[in-house]
Amino acid sequence: MPLPDFLADLFRNYRPETIDLEKHCRMVIKTVLARGTWEQVLWLFDYYGPERVREIFLQDYYGLRTLPEPTRSLWELVFVENPLPEAGDPAGRWRCRRLVPPFGEREIGGG
Asked: What is the rounded CA–CA span in Å between residue 105 and residue 87?
């Protein structure tokens, strides 16, 4: 499904007609969470559902953290039960940001 016209302003660095809502869902969700208006955020939750939006946010929150700090702080209140340590905590700065599955759940050999 193509990107709706009312979201095109958020994707000025892209050709909106080339963005597919399913194929590029991570980019669309994170962009709307970071820069969208209230109406665009409501559309996001209606289209993708709260669980999918939460899943994408938490992958960023516990992963590489590509969302801006103010965005992360806002949506942390909505989606995160046990927030990570504050940025002022020196140990928090050096913590591992990627979740690694337990040893028994890892795929071996890849492919």
From this structure: 31
